[in-house]
Each structure stands twice: as structure tokens, then as C-alpha cells.
Design goal:
There is one protein chain. The chain has 250 residues and is an all-alpha fold. It has one domain. The chain contains six helices and two strands, in the order H-H-H-H-H-E-E-H. The chain has helices spanning 8-47, 60-87, 90-134, 142-155, 170-175, 206-243; strands spanning 183-184, 199-200. A two-stranded antiparallel ribbon has the order 1-2. Helix 1 packs antiparallel against helix 6 and helix 2 (60-87) runs antiparallel to helix 3. It holds the Pfam family Tetraspanin.
Length: 250
């Protein structure tokens, strides 16, 4: 029997084709990752908007925008990757590599800032929340009213520990009542104590707000960490593709 050896060039092309097929599967995974990132980031941006402005340092709402940008880059990489697979144009491969670099930078930035925030926020939540209620409707602190009303309306609470936190604030001492966001609303009325006997909300915001911030921050950390691992996997596939090509790839 005569053994026929495969030509080295044919062998290289077969190995290269397998890697490109695996690379296409990864490109689909990158597209899925972009939609997961969009889901997490947009949920935080739209539904947890009341967290924005509470803390004096970067908050989850700000970090979610970084993650959203990473999702945009991943989606762009997915589109460019599909174009590269269909045309084998090396220009698309270069742009695809740039997208992976940008995605990695944004995901690492999200992971780092989220981890730093996660370490800081338990000790700052108490002080920062009391700061915003004590500057409620103070002209120099225009954002305090929005922050407080958003939190108390969204979480249906009043004050940090309970409604008595307001008793020493300039707002309460001036008009001798709690803000409207402390009301337990009925019949879609606006003011506390009207003819419909609306009552004040006595529950504090502390526990629910803490759990909300912790959950959101963990989601940012988990999503960015998983995304960074997936992007790193893409780099390994690209390196394997180049290593298996001893001559001109395309």
C-alpha cells in the first residue's frame, strides 16, 4: 500500500478553516454578549435612575453607561466579524481586533469602578443620604430634591431610618411638614393630609436602598467580568488563527 502524504499547504488551510469556523461561533457569542450587556445596562439606567446623584463619587448609574458603551462596541465587533467571515477581507479583521481592544478596556473599566464602588458604598450610604435630605430644596443644591423625591417615590419610603430623619432638616423646620414624596399616595393625589386623608410613609429607605445598590453593583461586576473573559477568549482565537497561518492568510 502506498501512503499519500498531505501537502503541508493543504494541511495548513484545513487547520485554518477549522479555526475560522470556531471564530465564527465566537462572533455569534459576541453578539449574544452585546445584547446581555444592553439588557443589564439599560435596566439600571432606566429603572434605577433614582440612584444617580445620591453618592458624591461615581455611582452605579454612571458605571452603567460605561457598560452600555461596551455593549455598543461588542455589537459593532459582531457586525464586523460577520462581514469578515463572509468576505475574508483583512480590513474587517483589523477593525474587529480594534473592537475587541476597546471592548476589553471598557469592560475592565466597568469592573474596576464597580469593585471600588462596592467597597465604598456601605460606609457612604448613610452620610450621603442624610446630606441630600438636609440640602433638600436648598438653592445651591438643585439636584438634592430630584434625588430624594426619586428615591422616596420609587421605594415608597421616607427618610433613611424613618420619617423622623426629616425633623431636623431646614425643609421641615421651615414649613413643618414632610415632602410630598413621603406620602402614601391614594387616588393619584399630590398633597399629604388633604380631604382624602392621605397618610405619611413611615418606613425608612435604608434597607431597601442598600439592597438595591448592592444588587445593581453585583450585576455590573458579574456582567463586566464575564464579558472580559469572553473578549479575552476572542483574543486567544485570533492568536491561534495567526499562528496556524505560516504564509499569507488571505
Amino acid at each position: 500500500m502506498i501512503r499519500v502524504e498531505k501537502e503541508p499547504g493543504i494541511y495548513v488551510e484545513q487547520k485554518k478553516s477549522k479555526i475560522i469556523s470556531v471564530l465564527f461561533s465566537y462572533i455569534l457569542l459576541l453578539g449574544l454578549l452585546s445584547f446581555i450587556i444592553f439588557g443589564v445596562s439599560l435596566t439600571i439606567i432606566c429603572e434605577k435612575h433614582y440612584l444617580h446623584g445620591l453618592f458624591q463619587f461615581t455611582d452605579p448609574w454612571d458605571i452603567a453607561w460605561i457598560l452600555f458603551c461596551a455593549g455598543v462596541v461588542c455589537l459593532t465587533g459582531f457586525i464586523i466579524g460577520v462581514l469578515f467571515y463572509n468576505s475574508s477581507n483583512p480590513i474587517y479583521l483589523i477593525v474587529y481586533c480594534v473592537c475587541l481592544v476597546l471592548a476589553m478596556v471598557l469592560l475592565i473599566a466597568t469592573l474596576w469602578t464597580s469593585a471600588v464602588f462596592y467597597q465604598k458604598f456601605p460606609s457612604r450610604l448613610h452620610d450621603d443620604f442624610l446630606r441630600v435630605i438636609h440640602t433638600y430644596r436648598v438653592p445651591r443644591f438643585g439636584s438634592s430634591r430630584r434625588v430624594v423625591d426619586d428615591i422616596q417615590t420609587s421605594l415608597q419610603c421616607c427618610g433613611l431610618n424613618n420619617h423622623t430623619d426629616w425633623l431636623s432638616t431646614a425643609f421641615y423646620l421651615t414649613i413643618n411638614q414632610w415632602p410630598d414624596s413621603c406620602c402614601l399616595f391614594r387616588f393619584k393625589q399630590v398633597y399629604c393630609g388633604d380631604v382624602f386623608s392621605l397618610i405619611y410613609q413611615y418606613k425608612g429607605c435604608s434597607e431597601e436602598l442598600y439592597n438595591d445598590v448592592k444588587t445593581v453593583t453585583r450585576a455590573l461586576i458579574g456582567t463586566s467580568a464575564a464579558g472580559a473573559i469572553i473578549v479575552l477568549l476572542g483574543w486567544f482565537l485570533l492568536i491561534a488563527l495567526f499562528n496556524k497561518s505560516k504564509k499569507k492568510i488571505f
